[in-house]
Amino acid sequence: MTLAIRLRDVSKSFRLRHRSPFLARELLRAVMQRPTRVEVFWALRHVSFEIRAGEAVGVIGHNGAGKSTLLSLVARTARPTEGELEVNGRVAAMLELGAGFHPDLTGYENIFLNGMLLGLSRREVAARLESIAAYADLGEFLDTPIHTYSTGMRARLGFAVVAHVDPDIIILDEVLGVGDAAFQDKCRATLTRFRAAGTTMFLVSHQPSNVRALCERVLWLDQGRLVADGPTEDVLARYREASQQLATRTAAARPAAGQSGTTPGS
C-alpha cells in the first residue's frame, strides 16, 4: 500500500495576542509597554489518519472546526506544532481563491507565476498556456490585471492552472462553492478525470452533494479533533444528525418570540 498522506498525533496551535482598545487615556500605559495578553489557540488536537495513493477524501465540520488548518498542513504551507506529518508526491493546492496571484500582474502573467509556484517550470507553463487560457475562458480579461477580476473570474483562472499541473495530490478548499453553474460542472468533470487517473484528492466542502459525488471517504472534524473517519454516507449521516440535534438545542435555548424575559410592569 502506497501512502500519500500520513498524520500521527498532529496538533497545530496559534498564538493570539489580545490588546485592549487603544484610547487616549491608555497612551501612558502603551508608552510604558504594558504587557499584551497572549492566548494559545489549538486549531487541531491529536489528529491521526492515513490516506492511500488514489483515494478521494473529504473533510467536513462546522466553521472553526480546523478544516482549513488541516489542509494547509497537508499542503505544506504551515507546519504542525506537534506530531508527525508525511506527504508523498507533487501537491497542487487551491486553499484560497487568488492565492499565488499578484494583483498588479495580468491574467497571463499570473498563469506563469501560479504555475511555477505549483511546481511547473516556465517551459512547462508555456507549453500549456493555450490550453490553460481556453479552460479559464476569460477572453480579453487575461490581458488585464488580476485586481480587476471578480471572485468567480479568479476562481476560473486558479482552477484552470491547477487542472494543468498533473499533481499526485490535489487539495481544494471550498473551490466548488464559487463561480457559475457551468464553471462548477467543469470543476467536477476535471476532478472526476483526476480521480480516474489515480490522483489523490483531499477537499473541504460544505456541500454534501459535492462530497458524495467525489469522495469515497470522509473525515469529520469538530473543535480541532477528528471525531469520525469512514465511508462517505456513514459519516455524512452522523454529521447531519449531530447538526440537527445542535439546531434543536439552540432553538430550545432561544427565548420564544415576543418574550422579553421580564415580568409585566417590571
How would you describe this protein?
The chain is of the alpha/beta class. Helix content is 36%, strand content 26%. The chain has helices at 27-31, 67-74, 107-117, 122-136, 151-162, 181-196, 208-214, 232-253, and strands at 3-18, 37-52, 56-60, 82-87, 91-94, 169-173, 200-204, 217-222, 225-231. Helix 3 (107-117) crosses helix 4 (122-136). The model has no long low-confidence stretch (mean pLDDT 86).
Give the helices and strands, then pairings.
Elements: E1 3-18, H1 27-31, E2 37-52, E3 56-60, H2 67-74, E4 82-87, E5 91-94, H3 107-117, H4 122-136, H5 151-162, E6 169-173, H6 181-196, E7 200-204, H7 208-214, E8 217-222, E9 225-231, H8 232-253
Parallel strand pairs: 3-7, 3-8, 5-6, 6-7
Antiparallel strand pairs: 1-2, 1-4, 8-9
Helix pairs in contact: 3-4, 3-5, 4-5
Compact overview of the structure:
By secondary structure, this protein is α/β, with parallel strands linked by helices. It contains eight helices and nine strands.
* CA-based gyration radius: 22 Å
Global geometry:
globular
Q: Average pLDDT value?
A: 86
Question: What is the tally of helical segments?
Answer: 8
| Low-pLDDT segments, ≥5 res | none
Number of strands: 9
Briefly note the structural class of the backbone: alpha/beta
**Distance separating the two termini:** 71 Å
Strand content: 25-35%
Measured as a percent range, the helix fraction is 25-40%
Highlighted features:
266 residues; alpha/beta; three-stranded antiparallel β-sheet; globular
